[in-house]
Amino acid sequence: MGVFCGIDWAEGHHDVALVDETGKLLAKCRINDDLDGYHLLLDLLAEHGDTAQAPIPVAIETSRGLLVATLRQGARQVFAVNPMAASRYRDRHGVSRKKSDPGDALVLANIIRTDMPMHRPLAADTDLAQAVAVLARAQQDAVWSRQQLCNQLRSLLREYFPAFLEAFKDKQGGLARADARRILAVAPTPALAARLPLWRLTAMMKRAGRRRNIEADAERLQQLFRREAPHQVPLVEEAMGKQAAALLLQLDTACEAVDDLGQATEEAFRAHPDAPIMLSFPGIGPQIGARILAEIGDDRTRFATAGGLKAYAGASPITRASGKRHYVGRRFVKNNRLNHVGHLWAFASISGSTGADAHYRRRRAGGDWHMQALRHLFNRMLGQLHHCLLVRISFDEAIAFPAEPQPAGTATA
């Protein structure tokens, strides 16, 4: 007789429920989130027939954490059930809409008892792929955090020091540039910036790593900082300068984290056997490749078809049909990280592949908006990536984007 386990996850403790294939409750308990609690859970599973050859499947509402890592050791199937899906199942067991942690554990156990084929277990990715996922997601979070801090600093500078924004508005990186951060740290107010001598501006730019056009740029900055402009009252300007200095400290830390995590991510990604195949695609560099690998993993059984991967990424459209009503539109339920990096990949591939560029322009000529054309290109190239990873071959431009046949009677040069 089959046994199924449901775990209602919490921060300090977890509720466990075991049911048989008829839905009868066999055991329930509450365990702490520590080593003793994990041993108690494994002992409880062993008492009800859990073995290394035939482990009891487990449903839980999270895909990460030490508890999940403990359960994933061996061949056990662990199902990460979306909390929203679990709440829909709860209504099947009662109409009073009551809720409790032991009851949620029982609901989770019954989900895999009745609908296991409808849910996907956690992928059996290699340790290296999981490490790349941790680093790539952390680096992406650091980039987003850096941009958020840049936006906050920009909003503050607009209120009292717009000349500084004008000085770096056309520079790549903007306020996150090393020379911009170094100059702002020394002169966080217009009064201090106006007193900066030319030699000091030049020295700060050199220490920040600048190698070209230093003297001309230093003269331009000095003219901007000394130009007549409206000012806040001195006390308010000084207070805003201190606020900008505090934000700048956070921005410096975020920039350093982006660089350190980016280097670690690239090293881990290049050590993975899928890296040469992914880097053969136009538009994929180490950072984009690492982010894609982080979300799709290296378990080739996870996506049986390219269509499943496209739906997971939100690249393929979704159809809603009922009677005479038929609607085809973009997906809103998707892996947002993969969808985000997919558009970066598609946009970069336009300049790296003549076939991708021609495909994008055809979609635009057919009436697609910019993002629609990029999504369609991402959808096509994602299917090609799935095939190349499955059969272990590199990208081939001639196969991926074959030349269209010319109309009959067209003369060729």
Task: Name the features.
413 residues; alpha/beta; Nucleotidyltransferase, domain 5; 3 domains; 5-stranded mixed beta sheet; two-stranded antiparallel sheet; 18 helices; 7 strands; globular
Shape: globular
- SSE pattern: EEEHEHEHHHHHHHHHHHHEEHHHH
Summed up, the domain count is: 3
Which stretches are low in confidence, meaning pLDDT under 50 for 5 or more residues running? none
- The oligomeric state is single chain
Quantity of strands, as a count: 7
What is the strand arrangement across the widest sheet? 3-2-1-4-5
Helix content percent band: 55-70%
In whole angstroms, the N-to-C terminal distance is 74 Å
Describe this structure in words.
This protein is an alpha/beta fold. The chain folds into three domains: about 5-120, Ribonuclease H-like superfamily/Ribonuclease H (Nucleotidyltransferase, domain 5), CATH 3.30.420.10; about 130-265; about 275-400, no CATH class. Helix content is about 55%, strand content about 10%. The chain has 18 helices and seven strands. The chain has helices spanning about 35-45, 65-70, 85-90, 100-115, 125-160, 160-170, 180-185, 190-195, 200-205, 215-225, 235-270, 275-280, 285-295, 305-315, 335-350, 355-365, 370-390, 395-400; strands at about 5-10, 15-20, 25-30, 60, 80, 320, 325-330. It has a five-stranded mixed sheet. Strands 6-7 form a two-stranded antiparallel ribbon. Helix 6 (about 160-170) runs antiparallel to helix 10 and helix 14 (about 305-315) packs across helix 17 (about 370-390). The radius of gyration is 28 Å and the shape is globular. The model has no long low-confidence stretch (mean pLDDT about 90).
